[in-house]
Design a protein that fits this description.
single chain; 85 residues; alpha+beta; two-stranded antiparallel ribbon; 4 helices; 2 strands; 49% helix; 14% strand; elongated
Length: 85
Protein backbone atom coordinates (compact mmCIF):
# COMPACT_ATOMS: atom_id res chain seq x y z
CA UNK A 1 0.00 0.00 0.00
CA UNK A 2 1.36 3.41 -1.00
CA UNK A 3 0.95 6.23 1.51
CA UNK A 4 2.04 9.83 1.11
CA UNK A 5 3.20 12.00 4.02
CA UNK A 6 3.06 15.75 3.61
CA UNK A 7 3.49 18.81 5.78
CA UNK A 8 4.12 18.29 9.49
CA UNK A 9 3.68 14.51 9.20
CA UNK A 10 6.51 14.39 6.65
CA UNK A 11 8.66 16.69 8.78
CA UNK A 12 8.20 14.50 11.85
CA UNK A 13 8.95 11.33 9.91
CA UNK A 14 12.11 12.84 8.42
CA UNK A 15 13.46 13.38 11.94
CA UNK A 16 13.38 9.61 12.48
CA UNK A 17 15.20 8.65 9.32
CA UNK A 18 18.84 9.58 9.31
CA UNK A 19 20.57 6.78 7.43
CA UNK A 20 19.66 4.56 4.52
CA UNK A 21 18.24 1.94 6.90
CA UNK A 22 16.59 3.04 10.13
CA UNK A 23 14.82 0.90 12.71
CA UNK A 24 11.99 2.54 14.64
CA UNK A 25 10.07 1.07 17.55
CA UNK A 26 6.29 1.60 17.56
CA UNK A 27 4.42 0.28 20.59
CA UNK A 28 7.15 -2.30 21.14
CA UNK A 29 7.25 -3.50 17.52
CA UNK A 30 10.40 -2.78 15.49
CA UNK A 31 10.02 -1.56 11.90
CA UNK A 32 12.76 -1.21 9.31
CA UNK A 33 12.53 2.00 7.31
CA UNK A 34 14.63 1.66 4.16
CA UNK A 35 15.01 4.06 1.27
CA UNK A 36 13.87 2.58 -2.05
CA UNK A 37 15.61 3.23 -5.34
CA UNK A 38 14.02 6.17 -7.15
CA UNK A 39 10.63 5.35 -8.65
CA UNK A 40 7.86 7.55 -9.92
CA UNK A 41 4.42 7.33 -8.31
CA UNK A 42 3.19 4.76 -10.82
CA UNK A 43 6.14 2.49 -10.01
CA UNK A 44 5.47 2.88 -6.31
CA UNK A 45 1.78 1.99 -6.77
CA UNK A 46 2.73 -1.13 -8.72
CA UNK A 47 5.34 -2.22 -6.17
CA UNK A 48 2.92 -1.75 -3.28
CA UNK A 49 0.05 -3.73 -4.85
CA UNK A 50 0.85 -7.46 -5.18
CA UNK A 51 -2.29 -8.18 -7.24
CA UNK A 52 -1.49 -5.43 -9.75
CA UNK A 53 2.14 -6.54 -9.93
CA UNK A 54 1.05 -10.15 -10.60
CA UNK A 55 -1.42 -9.01 -13.27
CA UNK A 56 1.28 -7.04 -15.07
CA UNK A 57 3.64 -10.02 -14.90
CA UNK A 58 0.94 -12.31 -16.37
CA UNK A 59 0.39 -9.80 -19.18
CA UNK A 60 4.12 -9.75 -19.93
CA UNK A 61 4.17 -13.55 -20.08
CA UNK A 62 1.13 -13.54 -22.40
CA UNK A 63 2.88 -11.11 -24.74
CA UNK A 64 6.05 -13.24 -24.76
CA UNK A 65 3.96 -16.33 -25.54
CA UNK A 66 2.21 -14.55 -28.41
CA UNK A 67 -1.17 -14.37 -26.68
CA UNK A 68 -2.07 -10.89 -27.91
CA UNK A 69 -5.26 -9.48 -29.40
CA UNK A 70 -6.13 -6.40 -31.40
CA UNK A 71 -8.52 -3.89 -29.85
CA UNK A 72 -11.21 -5.08 -32.24
CA UNK A 73 -10.67 -8.73 -31.24
CA UNK A 74 -10.78 -7.83 -27.55
CA UNK A 75 -14.05 -5.91 -27.98
CA UNK A 76 -15.60 -8.85 -29.84
CA UNK A 77 -14.47 -11.26 -27.11
CA UNK A 78 -15.97 -9.01 -24.43
CA UNK A 79 -19.24 -8.80 -26.34
CA UNK A 80 -19.35 -12.60 -26.53
CA UNK A 81 -18.61 -12.80 -22.80
CA UNK A 82 -15.37 -14.69 -23.34
CA UNK A 83 -13.54 -12.84 -20.63
CA UNK A 84 -14.42 -10.51 -17.84
CA UNK A 85 -15.08 -10.59 -14.10
Amino acid sequence: MFKRLEGTDAEQFQRFITDENTIILVDGTPYLVARLPFMNEIGLEIESDPALKASIERAKQDIKAGRVYSTEEAIEMLERGEFGP
